[in-house]
Amino acid sequence: MSETQIQELIETAIAQLAFSYTPYSHFKVGAALLAKNGQIYTGCNIENAAYTPTNCAERTAVFKAVSEGIREFEAICIVGGPDGELLDYTPPCGVCRQVMMEFCHPDEFQIILAKGKDDYRIYKLKDLMPQGFGPGNLEER
Ligand SMILES: O=c1ccn([C@H]2C[C@H](O)[C@@H](CO)O2)c(=O)[nH]1
Ligand SMILES: [Zn+2]
């Protein structure tokens, strides 16, 4: 991933904060998912009065892509904070990490946590999901 691509992902993720629907937590999250074909899929968190149907920004982005037939991904950028203020890095929750395990190579997929355009950290999925369970674990031998 080039520095230009990283910058584009951060900018795109930040732009999604405007769409985040968070009347309950007021914690806004934006995501930008880079597919291997070069397309970027966006996502925001979408809350619900019944709370548990809430969908995280990361899963919104992954499900949008998969629903369009895209299943190969290179990286995701995540930004978030109270009222959309990027006070800290926003790591993906456990459910989103598990969804990433389904479609992304743990040793290759990159997770960019950003606080701003020049303030970001990059992790591999494997680092955030050590000993993770994925499709390979169901393979018969
Ligand atoms: O990585 C994360 C963590 C939290 N949230 C959302 C869920 C909920 O709407 C709000 C507070 O948990 O932030 C995300 O979208 N992604
Ligand atoms: Zn999540």
UniProtKB/TrEMBL annotation:
<feature type="binding site">
    <location>
        <position position="56"/>
    </location>
    <ligand>
        <name>Zn(2+)</name>
    </ligand>
</feature>
<feature type="active site" description="Proton donor">
    <location>
        <position position="58"/>
    </location>
</feature>
<dbReference type="InterPro" id="IPR050202">
    <property type="entry name" value="Cyt/Deoxycyt_deaminase"/>
</dbReference>
<dbReference type="InterPro" id="IPR006262">
    <property type="entry name" value="Cyt_deam_tetra"/>
</dbReference>
<feature type="binding site">
    <location>
        <position position="93"/>
    </location>
    <ligand>
        <name>Zn(2+)</name>
    </ligand>
</feature>
<dbReference type="InterPro" id="IPR016192">
    <property type="entry name" value="APOBEC/CMP_deaminase_Zn-bd"/>
</dbReference>
<feature type="domain" description="CMP/dCMP-type deaminase">
    <location>
        <begin position="4"/>
        <end position="136"/>
    </location>
</feature>
<dbReference type="InterPro" id="IPR016193">
    <property type="entry name" value="Cytidine_deaminase-like"/>
</dbReference>
<protein>
    <recommendedName>
        <fullName>Cytidine deaminase</fullName>
        <ecNumber>3.5.4.5</ecNumber>
    </recommendedName>
</protein>
<dbReference type="GO" id="GO:0042802">
    <property type="term" value="F:identical protein binding"/>
</dbReference>
<dbReference type="GO" id="GO:0005829">
    <property type="term" value="C:cytosol"/>
</dbReference>
<keyword id="KW-0378">Hydrolase</keyword>
<dbReference type="GO" id="GO:0055086">
    <property type="term" value="P:nucleobase-containing small molecule metabolic process"/>
</dbReference>
<dbReference type="GO" id="GO:0008270">
    <property type="term" value="F:zinc ion binding"/>
</dbReference>
<dbReference type="InterPro" id="IPR002125">
    <property type="entry name" value="CMP_dCMP_dom"/>
</dbReference>
<feature type="binding site">
    <location>
        <begin position="45"/>
        <end position="51"/>
    </location>
    <ligand>
        <name>substrate</name>
    </ligand>
</feature>
<dbReference type="GO" id="GO:0072527">
    <property type="term" value="P:pyrimidine-containing compound metabolic process"/>
</dbReference>
<comment type="function">
    <text>This enzyme scavenges exogenous and endogenous cytidine and 2'-deoxycytidine for UMP synthesis.</text>
</comment>
<feature type="binding site">
    <location>
        <position position="96"/>
    </location>
    <ligand>
        <name>Zn(2+)</name>
    </ligand>
</feature>
<keyword id="KW-0862">Zinc</keyword>
<comment type="similarity">
    <text>Belongs to the cytidine and deoxycytidylate deaminase family.</text>
</comment>
<dbReference type="Pfam" id="PF00383">
    <property type="entry name" value="dCMP_cyt_deam_1"/>
</dbReference>
<keyword id="KW-0479">Metal-binding</keyword>
<dbReference type="GO" id="GO:0004126">
    <property type="term" value="F:cytidine deaminase activity"/>
</dbReference>
